[in-house]
Design a protein that fits this description.
about 100 residues, mainly alpha
Amino acid sequence: LVPTQMEIDAGTIILGMVLDTLTGRNPLYRLNKYFENQDTQLLLGKKIDPLKFSDYTVGRVLDRIHDYGAMKVFSQISLQALKQFNIDRSHLSFDTTSVSVHGD
């Protein structure tokens, strides 16, 4: 959804950010330090030099996502997940900030 001409794709950068957040949360400029001690082959599905997770690369990816539209990216990824995992969509609500249920 967010093409780049960098040596690492946007999805891998975002996955790296998610993994970092789930394990303690480093500042973005230290994301490459986080991956120095990680098995990127195991975590990301491919061997990646930790230096590829530089703050400049992360910033460029975030800029591209912003330009494309973060909600648009989220919506498209969510729809693909629903299709991939064959999730029943008859009872889904997209606006999770104001969901209320009444009755049975």
